[in-house]
Specification:
4 helices; Glutaredoxin; 153 residues
Length: 153
């Protein structure tokens, strides 16, 4: 099943950096930016996460929350969140179950070697749990502006 604009976002239950299970249904009534990123504390992922951090007050003012998802462990998320003072939950998806629901765990290639990894992607989900916008293969540069503009429109 493919996640598409206008359809209900697949719900999930997975632990955040505190070990508490997070589900989309916990955020009904708010807009959700669900972003998938390859790895904690790498240059692009740090830039993207800090971008969400820096605009978080603006997002909150527009009734939105941010949820970050990667295959990193809870322990890794604790360090990453603390190091960069990230004010939103980081979901640990070590089995890639959530990534697979959103088709973000894909075949990638580096230096001719193929492997499975997370495609940087963001989903805007409305207050009723319906997907309103999808960004796949995100380029970090300019992405925060796209996100904020989408929320304001």
């Amino acid at each position: 099943m493919t996640v598409e604009i206008g359809q209900k976002a697949p719900d999930f239950s997975a632990p955040d950096e505190t070990g508490q299970n997070i589900s989309l249904k916990n955020f009904l009534g708010k807009k959700i930016f669900l972003y998938f990123y390859p790895k904690d504390d790498t240059p692009g992922c740090t830039l993207e996460s800090c971008g969400f951090r820096d605009m978080y007050p603006d997002l909150q003012a527009l009734n939105a929350v941010v949820l970050g998802v990667s295959k990193d462990s809870i322990k890794s998320h604790v360090k990453f969140k603390g190091k960069y003072d990230l004010p939103f939950p980081l979901i640990s998806d070590e089995t890639a179950g959530v990534c697979e629901m959103y088709q973000t765990f894909v075949e990638k290639s580096m230096y001719g070697k193929k492997y499975m990894g997370i495609e940087r992607s963001t989903f805007l989900i409305d207050e009723a749990g319906v997907v309103q916008q999808i960004w796949r293969g995100v380029s970090v540069s300019g992405h925060m502006t796209e996100v904020l503009n989408a929320l304001k429109s």
